[in-house]
């Protein structure tokens, strides 16, 4: 009888053990599903869900399925802190996200304390990786890198009088400050430096003021919604000054808002989107995305969330472990030129993505984004 | 001087839209002493409905630009008026006897409901009106080049406001609305159906807000589901500036707010535009606590 009991216990333990082994790997996604950045968040969700489905259909990670657990950060730091606390209790190994730098910052400490790996996708503020947070990485570049690229684009364009416009968000202001500092060191003539208020639709007062300063070029570091309106209202004023934008304007909706005529000739800096890459990974992703959603992916930031998912799953597969330190060590030290959806991915010791990521894009006469060589 | 006039027209165009929305706040406050926080979202609904109707009926195929705008405006105003009346019936009337704070909370809830409903129905991305509906002519006025549409926005708003003012001052229903605003119980004793008056207020205010939404959509092109918040806040400020509860006050407040914003951006700092606007508001409220044209002292909400 005792033997019998032991046997039953043993069988019981074995089944439980194997059930544990087949448990899905849980990965979190924190995205702004509501609020002002909801369009970005919805895209992030669509892309990560699509990649998880494709991965699971192909057999998962070393035979284990992946489950994505989604939390809404509302694009707001307070909501993000709550979302991070909720996700921390969900037994997740890693979390992807999020978009805004201030929002990510509010969640960083919570994930760090819980020992959860965080891969941010759109948070470019420099300080995020300067804190020595071992489990924090990001697939997007940093503002200082973009500032340098912006400076080069403005310098190479041979512009004499430069206007810089931001929107007072920590991202846009950071980029504007960074670029201005580099330009000033180089002795460039900055005739205008100020901020607009987002979401206001009417920017004619600002454009009129800027026009009075008579710049050769305007560098706008804010987001695509405002950029589209600026271009449209600039055309209505018959003002022909060229506009250059930062990477937050990389969204096809910009052309819809401005109209193809007003948008033509507009340039912006951005990491490459998968449409412009001819790697097999990018092509497979695009085919799968078009097949499922019957549309083109929106902004590059949502695609970078997809890259976050792909590097994490790759690291779990390569180390064949769910040990956080091993995974992070793999990502930072061993992963070299991993073929991502936005070009090759490697991380440095701080968790920043390394490599020359930025390209210059131009809107052509048909309103399409064309990558300049 | 050109610069000043240019900025003046910029400010008046924005201000006229603020004024149209502010009328909705001020009318509801006048009669119910309630700040209808969902009003900004009714404005956003107007913008979205305009886009839906425009694309659904393919109006541009049958009518010229002016015809399209008039037909569209009538449909949008009618539909948003119905939404406003339903809002009153569902969210405010059951709370008529309750504490005033309850109604304010209900209004905020309605605002959140509308905003998220718009997001779920239309999606979170920006929506864009077709670009070729309105003419792109530019008129020269006192040596300043002003897009024709900008003048039309200003003109239409002013026309609507004058019509509303005459309606309130000269008609029987208008008199009943004024009576209910002064004293609801006394109005009831005089044989005025106050519930119906409130219903009418909730038809007119949202209709004007919806028209403003349509104008923003047609003129600026870009609409999104959070736009009601920003415009609502500005229009609410305009209503306070002019004296809440006072209809000419909302018009003056709206236009003034637009001009202050434009001038702040023109001669001081653009980034400080909103701060300047609110400093002016505070300064005016210190001197005249009831707003520019307000007579009755605003009670606490």
From TrEMBL, chain A:
Mind telling me which Pfam families this protein's record contains? Peripla_BP_6
- Key words of the record: Signal
InterPro entries, from UniProt?
Answer: BCAA_transport, Leu-bd, Peripla_BP_I
Every copy of the Leucine-binding protein domain together lies at: 24-367
Q: Where does the secretion signal sit in this chain?
A: 1-21
Q: Which domain of life is it from?
A: Bacteria
Q: Which Gene3D superfamilies match?
A: 3.40.50.2300
PANTHER family linked to this entry? LEUCINE-SPECIFIC-BINDING PROTEIN (PTHR30483), PERIPLASMIC BINDING PROTEIN OF ABC TRANSPORTER FOR NATURAL AMINO ACIDS (PTHR30483:SF6)
Q: What family is it from?
A: Belongs to the leucine-binding protein family.
Q: What is this protein called?
A: Branched-chain amino acid ABC transporter substrate-binding protein
Record organism: Desulfatitalea alkaliphila
- List the top taxonomic levels of the source: Bacteria, Pseudomonadati, Thermodesulfobacteriota, Desulfobacteria, Desulfobacterales
TrEMBL record, chain B:
Give me the Gene Ontology terms describing cellular component: plasma membrane
In which broad location class does this protein mainly occur, judging by the first location in its UniProt entry? membrane
Keywords of the record: Amino-acid transport, Cell inner membrane, Cell membrane, Membrane, Transmembrane, Transmembrane helix, Transport
Q: Which InterPro entries does this UniProt record tie to the protein?
A: ABC_transp_permease (IPR001851), BCAA_transport_permease (IPR052157)
Membrane found in the keyword field:
yes
Pfam assignment, any one: BPD_transp_2
Asked whether the UniProt record includes Transmembrane helix among its keywords, one would answer yes
Cellular compartments annotated: Cell membrane
The record lists the membrane-crossing segments as 12-35, 42-60, 66-87, 99-122, 148-168, 197-220
Q: Membrane topology type, per the record?
A: Multi-pass membrane protein
GO BP, sorted A to Z: D-alanine transmembrane transport; L-alanine transport; L-isoleucine import across plasma membrane
Question: Which domain of life does the UniProt lineage start with?
Answer: Bacteria
What GO molecular function annotations does the UniProt record carry, in alphabetical order?
A: L-isoleucine transmembrane transporter activity; L-leucine transmembrane transporter activity; L-phenylalanine transmembrane transporter activity; L-valine transmembrane transporter activity
Q: Which family does it belong to?
A: Belongs to the binding-protein-dependent transport system permease family. LivHM subfamily.
Protein name as annotated: Branched-chain amino acid ABC transporter permease
**Organism annotation:** Desulfatitalea alkaliphila
């Amino acid at each position: 009888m005792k033997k019998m009991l032991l046997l039953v216990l043993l069988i019981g333990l074995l089944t439980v053990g194997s059930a544990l082994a087949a448990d899905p790997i849980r990965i979190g996604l924190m995205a702004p599903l509501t609020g002002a950045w909801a369009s970005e968040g919805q895209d992030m969700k669509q892309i990560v869900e699509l990649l998880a489905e494709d991965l699971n259909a192909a057999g998962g990670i070393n035979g284990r399925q992946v489950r994505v657990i989604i939390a809404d950060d509302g694009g707001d730091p307070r909501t993000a802190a709550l979302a991070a606390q909720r996700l921390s209790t969900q037994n997740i190994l890693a979390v992807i996200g999020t978009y805004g730098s201030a929002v990510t910052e509010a969640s960083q400490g919570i994930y760090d304390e819980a020992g959860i790996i965080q891969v941010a996708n759109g948070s470019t503020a420099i300080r995020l990786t300067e804190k020595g947070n071992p489990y924090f990485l990001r697939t997007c570049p940093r503002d200082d890198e973009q500032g340098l690229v912006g400076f080069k684009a403005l310098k190479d364009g041979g512009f004499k009088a430069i206007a810089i416009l931001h929107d007072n968000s920590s991202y846009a202001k950071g980029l504007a400050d960074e670029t201005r500092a580099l330009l000033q060191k180089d002795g460039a003539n900055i005739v205008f430096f100020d901020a607009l208020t987002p979401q206001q639709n009417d920017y004619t007062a600002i454009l009129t003021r800027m026009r009075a300063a008579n710049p050769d070029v305007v560098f706008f570091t804010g987001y695509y919604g405002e950029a589209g309106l600026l271009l449209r209202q600039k055309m209505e004023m018959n003002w022909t000054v060229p506009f250059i934008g930062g990477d937050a304007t990389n969204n096809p909706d910009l052309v819809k808002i401005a109209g193809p005529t007003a948008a033509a000739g507009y340039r912006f800096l951005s990491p490459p989107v998968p449409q412009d890459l001819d790697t097999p990974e990018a092509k497979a992703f695009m085919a799968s995305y078009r097949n499922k959603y019957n549309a083109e992916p929106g902004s590059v930031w949502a695609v970078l969330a997809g890259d976050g998912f792909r590097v994490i799953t790759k690291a779990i597969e390569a180390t064949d472990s769910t040990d956080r330190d091993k995974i992070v060590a793999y990502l930072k030290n061993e992963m070299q030129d991993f073929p991502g959806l936005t070009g090759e991915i490697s991380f440095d010791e701080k968790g920043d993505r390394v490599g020359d990521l930025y390209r210059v894009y131009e809107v052509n006469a048909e309103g399409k984004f064309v990558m300049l060589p | 001087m050109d610069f000043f006039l240019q900025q003046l027209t910029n400010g008046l165009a924005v201000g006229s839209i603020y004024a149209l929305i502010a009328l909705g706040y001020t009318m509801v406050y006048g009669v119910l002493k309630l700040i209808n926080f969902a009003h900004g979202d009714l404005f956003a609904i107007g913008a979205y409905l305009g886009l839906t109707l425009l694309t659904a009926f393919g109006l541009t195929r049958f009518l010229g630009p002016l015809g399209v705008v008039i037909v569209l405006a009538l449909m949008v105003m009618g539909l948003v008026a119905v939404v406003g009346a339903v809002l009153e019936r569902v969210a405010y009337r059951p709370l008529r006897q309750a504490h005033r704070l309850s109604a304010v909370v209900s209004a905020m809830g309605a605002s959140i409901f509308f905003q998220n409903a718009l997001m779920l129905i239309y999606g979170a991305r920006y929506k864009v009106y077709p670009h070729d509906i309105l003419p792109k002519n530019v008129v020269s006025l006192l040596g300043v080049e002003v897009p024709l549409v900008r003048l039309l926005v200003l003109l239409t708003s002013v026309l609507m406001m004058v019509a509303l003012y005459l309606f309130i001052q000269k008609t029987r229903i208008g008199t009943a609305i004024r009576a209910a605003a002064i004293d609801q119980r006394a109005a009831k004793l005089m044989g005025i159906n106050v519930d119906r008056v409130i219903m009418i207020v909730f038809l007119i205010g949202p209709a004007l807000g919806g028209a403003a939404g349509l104008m923003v959509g047609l003129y600026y092109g870009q609409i999104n589901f959070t736009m009601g918040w920003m415009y609502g806040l500005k229009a609410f400020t305009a209503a306070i500036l002019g004296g809440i509860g006072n209809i000419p006050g909302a018009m003056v407040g709206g236009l003034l707010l637009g001009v202050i914003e434009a001038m702040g951006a023109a001669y001081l700092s653009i980034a400080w535009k909103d701060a300047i606007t609110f400093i002016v508001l505070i300064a005016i409220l210190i001197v005249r606590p009831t707003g520019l044209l307000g007579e009755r002292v605003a009670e606490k909400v």
